[in-house]
Structure formats: C-alpha cells, structure tokens
Amino acid sequence: MNTNKELFEHAPISKAVAVMAVPTIITMLVVVIYNMADTFFIGQTNDAMQVAAVSLSTPVFMLFMALGNLFGIGGSSAISRALGAGQDERAKHISAFCAYAALGTGVLFMLIFLVGMNGILALIGASENTIGYARTYLSYVAFGGPFIMFGTAFGHMLRGEGAAKQSMAGNMIGTVTNIILDPVLILWAGMGVAGAAIATVIGNMAACCFYLRYLLRGKSVLSIHPKQFRAGDGIALGVLAIGIPASLNNILMSCSNIIYNKELVGYGDTPVAAMGVAMKANMLVVLLQIGLCSGIQPLIGYNYGAGNTKRLKQVFRFTGMCAVALGTLLTLLMVVAREPIIRAFIDDAAVIEQGIKMMIALQLSGPVIGILFLCINTLQGMGKAVPSLVLTICRQGLVFIPMILILNTIFGLDGIIYAQPVADYVSIVIAVAICLTILRKQEAAHAKEEKEKALE
C-alpha cells in the first residue's frame, strides 16, 4: 500500500514538492518529446502538407486525452482527499469507477470518430491538400481511443495515492515506445502520417500494460476489480465535479486550436504548418510548468482533507516561486534557440520564417503562465469545482477564442499570432484574484475553528 503519509504530512515543503513534482515534470518532458516526435519525423519528409495535416489533427487527438483527464484528474483529486481522510476503501471504489468509465468512454468515442470522420475533417478545416493525410492519421488514432483514455486516466490516479514515480515510468514507457517506432514506421517503412498514428497507439498500449502490471502486483491501494466498482455515494459526482473542469482545459484547448487553425487556413497551408511547429516547441514551456503544478495537487488535496491549511499555503507559495523560476529559464531557452529549434523540424524557408515569429510571440507569457496552472491545480486539489471550472475555461475558452476572432479582424495574421499571450495575461490576473480570495477565506475559517476548539 502506498499512501505516503509521512511525505504528505511531515516532510519539509521543498522535499515534498520535489518528490511529487519532479516525476510529473519528467513525465511532462516525456510528453513534450512524445508530441514533438511525430511532427519532427514527419518534418523529415520535407512535406509541409503532411506537417500541416498532423497540426490540424492534433486537437482532435487531444480530445481523447482530455476525456482521460476527466476521469484521471477528477479521480486523483477524489482519491487523495479520501486517503487524507483515512477512507482507503472509498479510494478503491473511486479508482475502479474511473478505470471502467475511461474504457467505456474510449470505446464510445472511437465509434463516434469512425462514423463521423467526414464531418470531423470538415470541422478542423482540412484543405484539399491535407484532407487525405488527416483522414489517415485520425482513423488510426480513433482505434487507439480506449487505450489513450485508460492510460491517461490511470497515470493521474497513481499520483493521487502518491505513486508519482510509477506514473512517470508508465508515461516514459509509452513515449519511448512511440519515439522508437516513429522513425521506423514514418521514414524507414515510408508510412508517413499513418506510421506516426500507429506508433502513437502502440505507445499508449505499452503504457496501459505497465499500469496493469503495477496494479496487479498488489502494491497499490487502488483497484480495478469489478466488485470494487461504485458510482453512487457521491463517487461519480465527486469525480466529475473536478474532472469536468480539468478536462475542459484540454477540450477547450482542442476547440480553440481548431478555430486557430481554421483562421490560419485563410492565409494558406504554410501558416498552419508554421504554427504547428511553433506550438510543438512551446509545449516545453507550457507542459513542464503544468507538470510542476499538477504534481503538487495530491499534496494540496491531502492537506485540505486533513484540515492542515498552514501546510497547504506553504506548498502553494513554494510552488509559485518554482513556477516563475522554471518558466523564466524555459522562455530564455526558447528565445535564444528559436531558429535552430524551428529549423530542426522542417527544412522549408517559408515555414521557418513564419515559425520563428510565431514562436517568439508564444513566449511572451512564458515566465508567468505557471501561476495560472498553480491556481487551477490548487482549486482542483481542494475540490473547488466551480472556481476551477471558471479558471479552466478562461485561458482556452472565454478569453482566448474571442481574442482570436477579434484580433484577426483588427490585425489580420499578426492578431492571430499574438492572441494566445494576450489571453494568458488576462487569465492569470483572474486566476490570482480568485485563488487568493478562496485561500484567505479557508485560512479565516480554519482560524475560527481553532479558536472555538480552544474555548471549549
């Protein structure tokens, strides 16, 4: 059994954050490499249309991961709070519910994607130059939907019980498998985008096998035994209350990227390919900060469940400082190495020229974007469903989508390029205001309870 009580309750803040966050940061680094691999090896074909097709298809692929996050992040938050309250049996019921819900949803969306492929291709804005490649890529990815959702969900749930290293190991196994298969299938076998999609699916299957093996060895408090499956007693509602806001971040990211690409298509296929490369590179800045902040969510949830407000705030402050430091270093790296990074993906002069400009624009919010993710994960860990929902839909929905449309109308292509950093800063201001207000209220409520106990 792996509840890591000593780590959650008594370890120094720096050690607790490091133990929980470093594996998730490494996991996200692996995810960055995983996401870059397809684009990188497709780029070695020097076919900008295949690169554009993968860029158009990525938001649709991310929907599968978003639905995995729904049950994974929601389950992780519920599991960590249950363990903090000493409810080990409830944690088993939560994990079983999330596992089967993720698999069932994966099968459902596989069928939806395969049946509705023509409509999906029209929705993402595939042109006559890219539609064939996009259809091939998405058809293979759809078959892998159940594995993508299960693997994504269970990786998060393991972190909920403190098994961050095992979660990281599963992600790494899947990613390494994908990266090894990419050059073999894309270049050596000459399969192009089909090879990229097949490698992705096999990688997710490998991760699922690792998680199942770890679980069946009996070292985890979690369970996927059918007899442990429960949806009642607030389990489904508790998972969905946090999981829906968490997954909405990915769902809205997918939707906004679809709108992003459709607006870019109005300026030709080259800007789509260039933005696809720039956004893949920018994942290093964004996902590593997400890894840091999502890593400490079980610490937040456990201490919130245990009523330890002081330790919760210490984790919040320390992680905030780490997020700014990490964001600044990563942004400087991206700015200094912008041209070599873009050129490494594709040897196309027009794509490189536009990609460099787009990459610089995306870095404008890099040093501080981690503050937004910290606020979101803190509220999710505390079980604050509505505030976390508001923050989640700000960056990629309520703020970003209007910015794309408005700035495109006013400034054209430049407006589209700078829409993301503008939306980021607006969202950060909103996030800090909401999160600090809730933390102050929580501290005041805790102080009141302590005072009342002292008077008894």
Brief account:
The protein has one domain.
Share of β-strand residues: under 5%
Counting DSSP H or I runs of 4 or more residues, the number of helices is: 20
Low-confidence stretches: none
Distance between the termini: 38 Å
Radius of gyration (Å): 22 Å
Percent helix range: over 70%
Number of strands: 0
**Overall number of domains:** 1
Task: List the helices and strands in order.
Answer: HHHHHHHHHHHHHHHHHHHH
The best one-word shape is globular
Summarize the biggest pleated sheet.
Answer: none
Q: Mean pLDDT, nearest integer?
A: 86
Secondary-structure-based class equals mainly alpha
Keywords:
0% strand; single chain; globular; 456 residues; mainly alpha
Protein architecture, described:
Helix content is 84%, strand content 0%. It is mostly helical. The protein has one domain (5-455). The mean pLDDT is 86.
